[in-house]
Design goal:
The chain is mostly beta strands. The protein folds into 4 domains: about 110 residues, no CATH class; about 50 residues, no CATH class; about 50 residues, ligand-binding face of the semaphorins, domain 2 (2-Layer Sandwich); about 40 residues, no CATH class. Helices cover about 5% and strands about 40% of the residues. The strands form 4 sheets. It has a 5-stranded antiparallel sheet with strand order 2-3-4-5-9, with no helix packed on it. Strands 1-6-8-7 form a 4-stranded antiparallel sheet. The radius of gyration is 27 Å and the shape is elongated. It is a single-pass type I membrane protein.
């Protein structure tokens, strides 16, 4: 099921390199970019449409380039009966939820139970523990983002450049995380020392470590040390990552304040 929701596809269709001796799929990796080229490939169920030549380049910066040299027909005319036809990107993650434990009801150690319910993008599997109880777990597939390119614009000698956007995962401290101004709602999980929107490939860790509960207040642990002459007082508090200006009391003195983040 993940193959339907996780892909990098310059052109996904019912291609079969074995139907022609001239068809090849080659790749090259120079350490900073991976290039994969489909050269003179044909559709298995419609050989007479002609051969396709195209490539995908994945840069280590996250930049992706699709290039098309030979596209003999309008891509919207390719049949999707035997195989999906897609151009673009998609990603998903799987989260496993434990539902309940079924007591032993005549099952033996040799029993093998597998229950699969493929509805609304989830699968329920049942496995036996050593004590012959059955743990029921639900595996849910979340497709959290997809980029679909317009097929009619893909023609001979065209190219598509896809640039990555900033994400929560790039922030390495709590302050940077919760004060970020990007298109994601970033939260910091102290148990994992990780910034996330909660919806990425690390979702399972995020849930298992109770990060959704921890990040509700979107606060960081800050140690505020205020030096009061002739004495010194240290207080621990929780505050947002915004810079605060501290002033003295009614005596008109401005007391120095040091904010130190602990991660």
């Amino acid at each position: 099921m993940l193959t339907a929701t996780q892909y990098i596809a310059p052109l996904m269709a019912n291609f079969d390199p074995s139907v022609s001796r001239n068809s090849t799929v080659i790749y090259f990796d120079n350490g900073t970019a991976l290039v994969v080229q489909w050269d003179h490939v044909h559709l298995q169920d419609n050989y007479n449409l002609g051969s396709f030549t195209f490539q995908a380049t994945l840069h280590n910066t996250g930049r992706i380039v699709f290039a098309y040299k030979e596209v003999p027909v309008d891509l919207s005319l390719i049949s999707s009966v035997n195989h999906p036809v897609k151009v673009g990107l998609s990603d998903a993650f799987v989260v496993v939820h434990k539902i309940q434990q079924i007591p032993n009801s005549g099952l033996t150690s040799d029993s093998s139970v597998l229950l699969s319910l493929r509805r609304a993008q989830f699968v329920i599997s049942v496995s036996l523990s050593p004590s012959f109880n059955a743990d029921v777990r639900r595996r849910t597939i979340y497709e959290y983002h997809r980029v679909e390119l317009t097929k009619t614009k893909i023609t001979n000698f065209t190219a598509v450049e896809i640039m990555p956007l900033a994400t929560c995962l790039q922030f390495t401290s709590c302050g940077e995380c919760i004060s970020s101004q990007i298109n994601f709602n970033c939260s910091w999980c102290h148990r994992l020392n990780r910034c996330s929107s909660g919806f990425d490939r690390h979702r399972q860790d995020w849930v298992d470590n109770s990060c959704p509960e921890e990040t509700k207040d979107k606060l960081c642990d800050i140690v505020d040390t205020t030096r009061l002459y002739p004495s010194t007082t240290s207080t621990a508090s929780r505050t947002t990552a915004r810079i605060r200006e501290a002033t003295g009391g009614g005596d008109g003195l401005h007391r120095p304040v040091t904010n130190q983040r602990s991660h």
